[in-house]
Amino acid sequence: MRDQFISLALMLCILHSACGLYFHISETERKCFIEEVPDETTVIVNYKVELYDPRSNGFMPSSPGIGMHVEVRDSDDKIVLSRVYSSQGRISFTSHTPGEHVICMYSNSTAWFSGAQLRVHLDIQVGEHAIDYANVAQKEKLTELQLRIRQLLDQVEQITKEQNYQRYREERFRHTSESTNSRVLWWSLAQTVVLVCMGFWQMRHLKSFFEAKKLV
């Protein structure tokens, strides 16, 4: 029981983490990120693009003509989302298959501005982190206690999805291991059969050779 409580606490800590970062790209460069997402889980991506200004030697808000093309592919390599957004935006999608989702971003600017340096601030929120609870409380007129219970229920639901996803990964890994072991077994049997046939053929060949030379 104590181990289960510790595991639950660790998973809650993991779920409370968020992916916030920034990276530099040129206007013709493509950057992709992999996010493991359970099925039927909401993912929200917040981003902001800044353009390098050589006069101030810093990054400034990008011009209106520069936007970001965002493409999301699921674990089956199917396109979930693909469209052009402005230089700052909020993207939301829901996963329908569990597994690795690839989020790719690149500038939609033309070659006239190629070579310019961009800084992209990126924040990826998965599951209950993607829910705006302040907005939920205002719409549904929830008290602080009711809102906290709602958050806990969403966290439990997300933990259940994570556990189901881990079972799915374990099942896939077991299937891959069993398939590999089966192929190794059949390959070993095939090698054994080939070696036996080669030995039999060599014995027949040597016997025919000795008989032809009248040594036997």
Q: Which descriptors apply to this entry?
A:
about 220 residues, alpha+beta, Jelly Rolls, five-stranded antiparallel sheet, four-stranded antiparallel sheet, 3 helices, about 40% helix, elongated
CATH architecture of one domain: Sandwich
- Ends: how far apart? 79 Å
Q: Give the percentage of residues in beta strands.
A: 25-35%
Mean pLDDT reading: 79
From the 3D structure, determine the CATH topology of one domain: Jelly Rolls
How do the SSEs run, as a string of H and E? HEEEEEEEEEHH
Q: What is the 3D shape?
A: elongated
Q: Over the alpha carbons, how many angstroms does the gyration radius reach? A: 29 Å
Which class do the helix and strand fractions yield? alpha+beta
Oligomer state equals single chain
Number-wise, the strands total: 9
DSSP helical segment count:
3
